[in-house]
Amino acid sequence: MTLRLFYHPLSSFSHKVLTALYENDTAFEPCLLGHGNAAIDDEFRRLWPIAKMPIVRDEARGLTVVESTTIIEYLGQHYPGPTQLIPSDPELGRQVRFYDRFFDFYVHQPMQKIVTDKLRPAGKSDAFGVEQAHATLTLAYDVLEREVAGKTWIAGDAFTLADCAAAPPLYFANRLHPLTDARPNASAYFSRLLARPSYARALRDAEPFLMSIHSP
């Protein structure tokens, strides 16, 4: 198969790319990391020594594409489908890229800080860093509540890259730092993301692994 996706089923950035792939029914070969296949893990590190997932290997072009946003941009360029995840209109495209960065920096990163702190050895926790992460999530939720008001999706009527970026970190962050009913616009948006078939499929893929843990 031309496209191979190296990913982990509990990686929120992997979910972001999976959502984009499923949104346009793009064919790919799943290469699951960290589940006993040493050959896959070794190939992943050979292709991308930084070893941050996900990555896509395009065998037809002999290219390795890294970083979730760049991967989705690449898919839109070389494997387009019915959903244009990055608008061709320059201004709309700018807005979509901004919201993509917003979710990556202000929801994804603090969420991951909280999660990784739970995995630290005893006596190595970073209580202040976790407190800051929760404060960042509170601010981000407040911004989201304002930005999504009157919209179906974060950038307007169309589902885009920005929504692919929003769904996974909001899913995990909501378990650690709930949105609550005090933010009705953000909560309704989150519900629409959960119901989007492409993201719902990514979550179904992860269900067997999600059931084995108590936190993301």
3D architecture notes:
The protein is α+β, with helices and mostly antiparallel strands and 216 residues long. Helix content is 58%, strand content 8%. It folds into 2 domains: 3-78, Glutaredoxin; 90-210, Glutathione S-transferase Yfyf (Class Pi), Chain A, domain 2, CATH 1.20.1050. The chain is built from 8 helices and 4 strands, in the order E-H-E-H-E-E-H-H-H-H-H-H. It has a 4-stranded mixed beta sheet with strand order 2-1-3-4, with helices on both faces. The longest helix is centred in the middle third of the chain and has 29 residues, at 90-118. The model has no long low-confidence stretch (mean pLDDT 94).
- Helix-strand makeup class: alpha+beta
Structure summary, number of beta strands:
4
- Just give the CATH class of the largest domain: Mainly Alpha
CATH structural fold name of the largest domain: Glutathione S-transferase Yfyf (Class Pi), Chain A, domain 2
Strand order of the largest sheet: 2-1-3-4
* Helix-strand pattern: EHEHEEHHHHHH
CATH architecture of the largest domain: Up-down Bundle
Number of helices: 8
Termini gap: 31 Å
Mean pLDDT: 94
Tell me the Rg in angstroms: 17 Å
- Largest pleated sheet: 4 strands, mixed
